[in-house]
Amino acid sequence: MIHRASQIVCLLLLSAVLTNAGCKAYQLGSPSLHRFEIQTVHVPVFESDSMRRFLGQRLTEAVVKEVELNTPFTVMSAGRAQSILTGRIIRERKNVLVETENDDPRALQYEMLVEVTWTDRGGVPLMERQVLRLERDVTFIPEGGQSLTTAQQELIEQLARQIVGNMENPW
After folding, report:
1. For the residues 153-161, what does the mean pLDDT come to?
2. pTM of the predicted protein model
3. Sign of the alpha-carbon torsion through 6, 12, 15, 17
4. With bands split at pLDDT 50, 70 and 90, how would you rate the model's confidence at 23?
5. Cα–chain center distance at 72
6. Cα distance between residue 143 and residue 170, in whole Å
7. Residue 34 and which of 8, 26, 75, 155 are 20 to 30 A apart at CA?
8. What is the DSSP track for 88-135?
9. What residues contact residue 60 under an 8 Å CB cut-off, 6+ apart?
10. Which residues contact 97 (CB under 8 A, 6 or more apart)?
11. Which residue has the higher pLDDT, 27 or 130?
């Protein structure tokens, strides 16, 4: 009976260790690229000045995924986090690059400007307010089967990488 109980305890401990081992996200890069005094971050839903629905939520989701995958930080609720990363989409627009002879858009360009601030719990800036825009905007061609939604998602993912990249320590 004692032998059986010790086997159960060992299995439970092994199960707990294996379960917790899978919770930590893989981190790219050196931990020294990021602030050692900060371990947790809260990312509230990004605000959006756009009339397009759910852009702020989609960008927030991409930023949270990027933080979890590529930084040593853990995303937590506002009350428990040591820092807060806030953002606002201040402009998004689509421009026609090429038109057909009937004035139908053949190629369009999509761009987005995002304002981001990262502060500690006391409001001290860890990253000064920045307005981010990609070097190259996303171009899409509706006739080729591309859509505004796919262009938005591509841009959102690129912006999320840029936002999280700016959370690294300055050189």
Report:
1. 92
2. 0.75
3. negative
4. very low
5. 14
6. 43
7. 155
8. EEEEEEEEEEEE-TTS-EEEEEEEEEEEEEEEETTS-EEEEEEEE--S
9. 43, 44, 45, 46, 87
10. 106, 107, 108, 109, 139
11. 130
